[in-house]
Amino acid sequence: MFLLDVQHISKSFQNNLALQDVSLSLEKNKIYGLLGPNGAGKTTLIRNITQIFFPDAGQIFFNGEKLSEKHQNQIGYMPEERGLYKKMKVGEQLLYFAQLRDFSKAESEQKINYWLKKLDIESWRNKTIEELSKGMQQKIQFVATILHEPTLLILDEPFSGLDPINAELIKNEIFELHQKGTTIIFSTHRMENVEEICEDIFLINKGKIILDGNVQAIKHQFKKQLIKVDTNSTVLLNDSILSQTDITEQADTHLIFKLKENQKANDILKVLLQNNIEISGMTEILPTINEIFIQSVNNNS
Amino acid sequence: MKKVWYIIQREYITRVRKKSFILLTLLLPVLIGFTTVALVEIATNAQEKLSIAVKDESGLFEDKFRGMDLGDNLRFKYLTNNPQSIDSLKNIYQNIDCDGILYIPKIELEKPLGIAYYSDNELGITTEAHIRKNLTEEIRNRALLQRNYNVDTIALFDKEVSIEKIINNEKKNGSSEVAGIFGYACGFMIYIFLIVYGAMVMRSVTEEKTNRIVEVLVTSVKPFQLMIGKIIGIGAVGLTQFFLWAILTFGINMLLPMFLGDKMLAMQSMQQSQLANTSESTQLLMNISNAFNDLAVGRMLFSFVFYFIFGYLFYASQFAAIGAAMTDDSDAQSFTFPVTIPIIISMILMSATLSQPFSSAAFWGSMLPFSSPIIMITRIPFQVPWWEQLLSMFILFICSMGMVYVAAKIYRVGILIQGKKITFKEIGKWIFY
Hints:
The complex is a heterodimer.
Chain A: E1 4-13, E2 16-26, E3 31-35, H1 42-49, E4 57-62, E5 65-66, E6 75-78, H2 90-100, H3 105-118, H4 134-146, E7 152-156, H5 164-179, E8 183-187, H6 191-197, E9 200-205, E10 208-214, H7 215-221, E11 226-231, H8 239-244, E12 247-250, E13 254-258, H9 265-274, E14 279-285, H10 289-300
Helix pairs in contact in A: 2-3
Chain B: H1 2-16, H2 19-45, E1 50-56, H3 62-66, E2 74-78, H4 86-92, E3 100-104, E4 116-119, H5 125-146, H6 151-157, E5 165-167, E6 170-172, H7 176-210, H8 213-217, H9 223-260, H10 262-274, H11 278-295, H12 297-325, H13 332-355, H14 360-365, H15 372-379, H16 386-414, H17 424-431
Parallel strand pairs in B: 1-2, 1-3
Antiparallel strand pairs in B: 3-4, 5-6
């Protein structure tokens, strides 16, 4: 059974079709990337999941049940634009958010203590938000999002504004939550984060999902049959090599081959070995998610 | 319900704890107290101590001046049998310990000309009025006597009539002026409350919208809960402030005599002596206390609280809807205009109501929910029939509930729309969406 099952939902705003027949299924305990250019419909999709909006058509199921108000406390959402009360103290603010999630005061305090201690920010408890730096506010926002231990966590650009150290800290917390069984939807433009963190991705453009699946599988699907061979010294290319292979790039210490039809990496190796070329390594070149993203969106337009 | 309660709490506590709230709430009554003290101090200390010599060549006013002293502040020294002429006296009045000299030549009663005052300093307005009034009175009496009129008889005609009011077979003693002042005060307080706290609701909604807290909040509470919690929370702040002002002002007024002591009594007696006659002032005091008896304090209090709360609900929900529809502060002007106009018109209608509390304009003004919180409360001291008040309350109740419903519809869509300008046409669509 899927944790979240979005079935054929559509949503329009005054003649503008924001989502068209979008379907996606999220398994428990996985990290998903939700990618897409600006205005593609990511936020609208998230808002349908968090029940800020309701779809015009289609249905959403949570844990096999029709998504309803009672699931709200199992979902945590951190919007891209941060929202905290500037004049409120950190401790009070977190308490307020926890209480709105139906926790008692004692329970809330306990959770707040735990997280402030864990992130080593206990000393901020009595500071107002406006006294904190942007990155610090981000951390508080993160705590506010996960305080109620949601089973589905939706993070919209969680690292923007964070320095590398704090970004690493939050990343580790995300992995830890993942290990504890949380399903995470990660909406971002930063493709390096996607490769590092996500297992599966959904690519959305113009209100439609144009690509989805396992990150590695997608990379293989988009690969351009390129083989990179590392050499110790510059290779002198002879007719034998040139006639049997298709070289796309030559540098001092490496060569890049494009595989011909029915050609395998081994065939390239064989040719090189026959010509007594010393090889220090060989890798298959896979496209980055960034390249796949740009290619898919351009093809779609 | 519990969530609404948390929202109310947050809205209330964060505001009540603000330094600006505490300062304003405490300072205003203290300021009023200080102003009173200052007024009393000024009135008692600034009173010039004058001693005036009187050279009366006519000899008509000797008796009159004996009773004209005003305590220590104004003394008259009537110069009897002083042979010196005014020309020499006017240069030496300081020698006889006087601040100035009043000269009354031999005058004809029909043509009392040539009365003069010589001094280094200007004569104060009240002192001059005091002297003029007494001299005029004396001249008038003497002129009447000369023609053989009996002054006492004439004084008998110097009476004002009063009109007894019997409304619905019940005798009313209060004056309509007092009722008017009281009604005006209540109406004005509601007016201030609607404007100030309505705007506060609006600002608070816009703030949550622009810094995107709303997006986080609506994942755990319904927009309606958020809106109603805010309206109630801020309303409670307003009630607290009014309540504290009432108590503090009352308390400080009770304490004032301690600081001022007999100065206050001195001023009161001074004011009374300056009133034309004492019966007039006692009459006024009686009017006030009678009016309060007639007002039926219970009814007034109940009505005030009712119109206060539901008038606020009616307008605050409109302000909340506007706050949600605004994308930036520059929209505020064009959006608040349609809401504040009825409040301002009510304020204008209020003065018309005071002079004619039973005109048809006043009647309709107290029925329409846009103006009834202000107009009806102004009319109630004038003994509005109960059926009118109950009807007006019913209409206001229904309309405020309806307004909350409509506002919630605008609010729930508006708070999530960022960036683009919103037109009234779109807002209309949201209501019927």
